[in-house]
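Input:
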Amino acid sequence: MTWVLANLGLIWARTLDHVVLSLPPIVLCFVVAVPLGWLARRYRLSRGIILTGAGLLYAVPSLPLIFVLPAVIGTSLLSPVNVIIALTLYGIALMVRVVSDGLDSVDADVRQSASAMGYSTWSRFWQVELPLAGPVLLAGMRVVAVSTVSLVTVGAVIGVQSLGSLFTDGFQRGIQAEIIAGLVATVGLALLFDGALVLAGRVLMPWTRRITAAKPSAPVEVSAA
Amino acid sequence: MIEFRSVSKRFPDGTLAVEDFSLVLPSHKTTVLVGSSGSGKTTLLRMINRMVDPTSGSVEIDGEDIATLPPVKLRRGIGYVMQNSGLLPHRTVVDNVATVPLLRGTPKRQARADALAMLDTVGLDRSLADRYPSQLSGGQQQRVGVARGLAVDPNILLMDEPFGAVDPIVRAELQQELVRLQKELDKTVVFVTHDIEEAFLLGDQIVILSEGGRIAQVGSPAELLANPADDFVASFVGADRGRRALHVERHGNEDVVVDSDGRLAGVLRSEGVR
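Output:
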């Protein structure tokens, strides 16, 4: 505890580093996965290629990926961009299938009636299918957010600073409190991201909230009938 | 006026849903397409707003071949009500009703005000306006579906078994409501059902379809009952049995009407007595 109190400034600085490294992959993977997931659902051929590709991508171990990326995209070995791109790739690998499944979950009747109303394919996607896939997308994004926050720590091994640096430094110098502080802060940050997503979901998808709120009254109606 | 000219539809999997179908659907009348499943009735209905395009032949609305019209624009001008309402679950009742006006570019405030007025028209309380579809009963959802279909005041209203999924009491209520609305609004309604009772109640012109969209007979309810073209039509309209095969028996001074099961259907009175 004394170590923590003496190094609050350091922990805070690493936490900020951690946030800066985690946010871009979370946002980017969503932006990329939505069109890919749509494409995967749209054509039989693209479905096989994209979903298999995404599955394989997820199987690549993180540390080698972070080492190999500079050679592939020409960044310097120590650049934080490597970590961001690697984690974006993992996020995409996970979210592509989620987006495709989420779009699949939209009721065929609703899709058909939207077309009959005169939605174009484009407007139907943005105004009907994507919002209705929302609950599934949210569930996927919660996993992505938590796993990204946790994976950012791996970057510390190649010298990209984050809360993971507290682990590496704590191990090297034998400071147990530093390791534990890094662990607790990482988990706390993951919970914070998760909470923010849940809150965003409630604001953006009010219809799902009302449905849950309406549920308790349903059995009463049944017994009355 | 809607006109089918030698329309055929073969789906990609090879099934011939409709073969050489020709029919005129007069304006401001309700035409009911009746048939069992596989009769192509829904396919025919969906050809009118180009949800399905015919393989051959053409569909015309007021003399214009609709194959020349962009489908999205065409659909925004035609009301469509389907079974299970097809409401957008993530939009409130009022927003659902305002869907098509908003797509056509009506200002939001105007569209919402019109939508509220449309709720009155279909007999829904305005207090339901801010609910989500999942919070309504099946009957209420269908009313919202009808309100949405009527929102742009279309000339044509397509109804695909709209009351098929609600319980019989609510269905009867909705049917009466539609009869009232149609008297008021005078639309060209095309209604699909497999329920002959519903067809008799709602239809000015009834089209009985057999397999593959073949027309077994077209006529008013009275024509179909009095002169069924063949055994298929006779058995479909039930002219030969049950509550439709009535005969008169004399009991004292009264003529009573009895159905084919021997059940008393009522008392026969001449027009004047009423």
